[in-house]
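Q: Start with the shorter request: fold the first protein.
A: Done. Sequence, then structure:
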Amino acid sequence: MTNHADGRPDIRVLEERHMISVLFYIRDHEGCMKSEIYRDLSRTPRFPEKLNLLESNGLIEIGSIHGRFTSISLTDRGRKVVDLLMQMQAVMDGTDT
């Protein structure tokens, strides 16, 4: 499930394999191309579907550069989610303040 019954985004989208890794990758490589994500994270045939799920949940934007290359960026919501994930990691590491 990726959305609530009323169509709102659902946190469970992050349970899918590689979703959190993708968000961190895009944070570190803002404006990257799909091919870079595929190359650096996973070549699973489902990866385009995973990116579409992140986009439909308002976490990333998929656009084109000069109509040729596909670029991917975090939305404001995506940045907030990544920030919260980073805070959670700090708690897990015992480095939160």
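Q: Next, the second protein, separately.
A: Sequence, then structure:
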Amino acid sequence: MTVEANKQKKHVLTITVSYKSAAWTAKSLRALADERARSPHLVIEAIVVDNASGDSPELRRVIDGHGWGDWATLITADRNGGFAYGNNVAFAHAYAL
């Protein structure tokens, strides 16, 4: 798909803040992968923030193992500042793109 064709699609960005919930986060990413396959008219991307829980290695294995790295971004927060902090980490990344 060309960049121009991609610009004409609706873009959806999901943010997941994870804290010791790698299995649930993996299920969420699987659901997004399924939705991406069913919705070629959408550009669906995900940012997952591990809120300093130690889940990052497992989440990295899930994302890389399924080949989701082109649409799923994993960020490891340097501290657990709470749910709002984790969302702000993701928003800062999204707006920097």
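Q: Describe the second briefly.
A: The chain is about 45% helix and 25% strand. Strands lie at 10-18, 42-50, 72-76.
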